[in-house]
């Protein structure tokens, strides 16, 4: 079941379309990542889904409700905004206890979420004295106060040191596992999403270039790197580079790494024996591996910019 | 879950931010001290024999007693709406408030209750208490004049608050909203005042004074009472019905500006 359904939404700021006919689905219990460069439309999409912005066109359903200015829905979702800020003169524990009262939760929940985010030592500190990293953790604690079924987070790891980032990613996995929380995360730091996400949507110029599970995306975008072990990498590499459907060829001392579009991998398997014979190279092994989300992201962006079916050579470097 | 508890919590949260210790305490102390000081001045300077009618005397007494208090509570109103709300929008605190189970309209109401209504209640409470304490007979004898004077004096305060609200929503920044707001107030209540007087004097026409009386209905009220004394320096003496009309028009203008602010906040505010 889709917890979030976004259909053909458009949001314009003047003449600029921040989001342009964007569609998205987030399944219940999943962790979906929004990936894209700065200005891609991730934050606007997040704001629309969390009910902070109203789309100019299209429809958004979260828990099968319209999110725009919907108080009932806010009780069911937790949000972590980019550059999270809170009323600064409150003390950490006092503010979270206030948030508990707002959501109708017992005040003991405040201590639970502070322990969850390892902020126990900051109970009595005023919010304005927290460091940027602690403030981010506080934002995460705040988002968990109402025991939400869905957490929407815009750049949740910004301002965190590597250890805290790792802790946060662990926390996300734990919340999904223990409390069946669904996540929609956006980040510029692709390897982080790679670690926790079941699926991703690659966004650029307000559009979804590609979305789906990591494996599915790998297949669809053709980002399946093929490794050919051979005794003549240079010679074989030169010939493979001539193939028009190949987008990346890298030769090293032990073999050749090749990137091809989906569907073309079978052609490569057919062509390699012929080319090896031509290059007088002995094939020692051939296998297709997986690709990182970062590579997928770069491939998809380039693919979209080209407006065509394939991207330029040497793209998946 | 009802809206009452979340609303109350957002309101008290705004109170904590607007009046962190000792802002409110200092304000109360200053207002209370001024009340005693002002009562002394008003008691010495205001003599009933100077006025033809008891209403004119009451108006003058209430006006001179309360205007410094209005200036005093005006400072936190400017700070809370222009700087406070502007900064909330600038820093993104408003996004946090929007994550609570309240509509935007309730959130703005809670914010304005703290920023505007609390200082006004403080002003009304202290000034009315002071007036009853020092001039019980005058006040008790003319409640209508007292109420009208208060209404005429508060209208520009509310107008200023409404304009600051619109500026804060539009500029979405704290300091620029304060600076622009103060400049606008200076133009409206100082420069426009002088220009209106000059034009009225130069042309012999009172139309510009009538326009200005919508912004500051106290002008109409003052001219009405000064006219009864025959000491007005202006060539415009409205009758009592007109005074009521200008006060009503002033509040209608305030209502329109706040309505625009609410609609903008609810529908078009970009965050």
Topology diagram in text:
The complex is a heterodimer of chains A (about 325) and B (about 270).
Chain A (H helix, E strand, L loop, with lengths): L1 E12 L2 E12 L3 E5 L6 H8 L7 E6 L8 H4 L2 E4 L11 H12 L4 H9 L15 H13 L5 E5 L7 H18 L2 E6 L2 H7 L2 E6 L2 E7 H7 L5 E5 L2 H9 L4 E6 L3 E6 L4 H14 L4 E6 L4 H14 L11
Parallel strand pairs in A: 3-7, 3-8, 5-6, 6-7
Antiparallel strand pairs in A: 1-2, 1-4, 8-9, 10-12, 10-13, 11-12
Chain B lengths: L3 H15 L4 H23 L8 H38 L1 H6 L5 H31 L1 H6 L1 H29 L2 H30 L3 H9 L1 H13 L10 H29 L3
Helix pairs in contact in B: 1-5, 2-3, 2-5, 3-5, 3-7, 3-8, 3-10, 7-8, 7-10, 7-11, 8-9, 9-10, 9-11, 10-11
Structure description:
Chain A is an alpha/beta fold. Chain A is built from eleven helices and 13 strands. In chain A, strands 5-6-7-3-8-9 form a six-stranded mixed sheet, with helices on both faces. The radius of gyration of chain A is 23 Å and the shape is elongated. Chain B has helices at 4-18, 23-45, 54-91, 93-98, 104-134, 136-141, 143-171, 174-203, 207-215, 217-229, 240-268. Chain B is an all-alpha fold and 271 residues long. At the A-B interface, helix 2 and helix 3 of A face helix 1 and helix 4 of B.
